[in-house]
Design a protein that fits this description.
The chain has one domain. With 136 residues, it is mostly helical. It is built from 6 helices and no strands.
């Protein structure tokens, strides 16, 4: 399977070891791209990290879809932890209101625990997908 097909195409099947290797390559590549951008002073670091995060999430979706298909599950299940992660990270906006003194305490807690819950669900789903037994 080619690199482009591995990271940018959600159809097909990959085994456990291939999933973990591809995930490691994805993370190391994103880290190297962020470090190179930081050292050269190219794009603003937050803009670069946002773009890298979107690209990594799409690549993760493709890898997870392939892995789920290999495990005999629907590839669309990969969208659930990705959506939980996005919603959880979007809750950070509630902290802005808290810093301005406009938000009540429950919204402040949502701004803290929302991203934490999104990250925990995403990491747990990654482990579940990566450790699932192959079928067929």
């Amino acid at each position: 399977m080619s690199i482009v097909k591995l990271f940018l195409w959600p159809r097909g099947r990959i085994g456990r070891l291939s999933f973990w290797r591809a995930l490691l390559v994805l993370l190391l590549t994103a880290f190297a791209a962020d470090l190179a951008n930081y050292m050269t002073g190219g794009i603003h670091p937050l803009q670069m990290r946002f773009a890298l995060a979107l690209l990594c999430l799409f690549c993760w979706l493709c890898l997870a879809a392939k892995r789920l298909e290999d495990a005999g599950r629907s590839r669309f299940l990969a969208a659930i932890p990705a959506a939980v992660l996005i919603v959880g990270l979007a809750c950070v906006g509630f902290l802005v209101g808290a810093l301005d003194g406009r938000a009540p305490a429950p919204w402040t807690m949502l701004g803290f625990f929302g991203p934490l819950a999104g990250i925990v669900v995403f990491l747990a789903a990654t482990l579940w997908i990566g450790l699932a037994k192959s079928r067929g």
